Amino acid sequence: MSALDDTISATTKKLERQLRRKAIADYASQARARKAQKKTDDAARKADTRRKIELGGLLIVAAVDDWEPATLVGGLLALSRAKPESLAAFRDQGIAHMEARKAKR
Asked: Which end of the chain, C or N, has fewer beta carbons within 10 A?
C-alpha cells in the first residue's frame, strides 16, 4: 500500500466513525422528541379524561345520570339556545344546588 492508500483508508475510517456518531446523535435526538411528544400527548389525554369525568359527575349531581343519552343531549341543545339572561338564572340555580348538596355532607 502506498502512503496515499493509507491516508484514504484512515480518512475513510474517520468518516465512518463520524457518520456512526452522527447517526447515534440523530437517533437520541429523535428519541427525546418522541418522549416529549408522548409526554404532551399523555397530558392532553389525562386532561381530556379528567374533563369527561367531571362532566359525568355533574350529571350525577343534577340527578340526571339515569336519563337516556338522547334526552340529555336534547336538553343540553335546548339550553345552548337559551338567552344569556336565562343562563345566568340557570347558573344561580346550579350554584345553589351544589352548595346545598355540599352542606348536606
From this structure: C
C-beta separation of 61 from 97 below 8 A:
yes
Q: What CA–CA distance (Å, rounded) separates 1 from 15? A: 20
Residue located via cell numbers 341543545: 77
pLDDT in tens, the chain (105 residues): 699 999 999 999 999 999 999 999 999 999 999 999 999 999 999 999 999 999 999 999 999 999 999 999 999 999 999 988 889 999 999 999 999 999 988
SS3 of residue 6 by DSSP: helix
Sign of the dihedral through C-alpha 31, 35, 36, 37:
positive
Exposure b/e, 3-37, CB count within 10 A at least 16 = b:
eeeeeeeeeeeeeeeeeeeeeeeeeeeeeeeeeee
pTM: 0.63
